[in-house]
Design goal:
This protein has 254 residues and is mostly helical. Helix 2 runs antiparallel to helix 3 (59-80), helix 3 packs parallel to helix 7 (124-146) and helix 7 runs antiparallel to helix 8. The chain has 9 helices and no strands. The chain crosses the membrane at residues 230-253. One of its GO terms (cellular component) is extracellular region. Keywords: Membrane, Signal, Transmembrane, Transmembrane helix.
Length: 254
Amino acid sequence: MKFSAPAALLFAAGALASPTAAELCARELSTVNTIMTTVLEGIQGLDSSISAYKGGPGKELEEASTKMLGTIRTATNNAAAMTPLTMDEAIAFQPLSDKLNAAGDKLLTDLESKVDLFAKSKICETTLSWVAQVGGNVNTLMTTISTKFPAGGKGGDEIAHFNKIFQTMQDKLAACSGGGSGVAPTAASNGTKPDATGKPSSGSGSKPSANPTNKDESNPSKPTSAVKPVVTAGAAIMTVSGAGLFAAFAALLL
């Protein structure tokens, strides 16, 4: 069978343009790095707002958390569309994973240091509301990314660790004596789960059924349930890293 000169050139061009398996993997590693770098910047931005808070209604914190939620949801959609990574690529993700862990731990530490100030400013409930939403959505992102990493890592451990420390933070806010005007949804009810297309089924956290009554304001009830980790088979978001809030998101995050 003979090819015409143009056909032969097109065939050759197609062969040259076809990426190798290694090139495809490199692209996915680049994708996850881009996704998680954006999340890292979001964490740092929210943390900056928390650190700068000196009292008041906390509108700047709500605005920063809303921005962070948008970043997390976009990252979750992008992560769901990725193809799985190899073990070598998961290991190559380690440096960024360490940065995410450090940023996540710092954010929670800074948040905890402001609890008394939140109580004094009477914004414990409104703070709990956005903290629960961020926690639930980060959990979803971590779980989604963990499915893209090879089996044998610490994805399940990382997600469970995140759930535990974030729930502790929510318990402290729920026990705040200052009260507030907002509502206090649980993290579990605010996390969105990707559907078959990889997109979260809900664009925003769900709303709780009611506010605490005046009778209970001095001892607000805690969220109805703790965040429950959803770990799929082969979850290995942080193949070699220690526990942390956003452990590799593989898994965020978290």
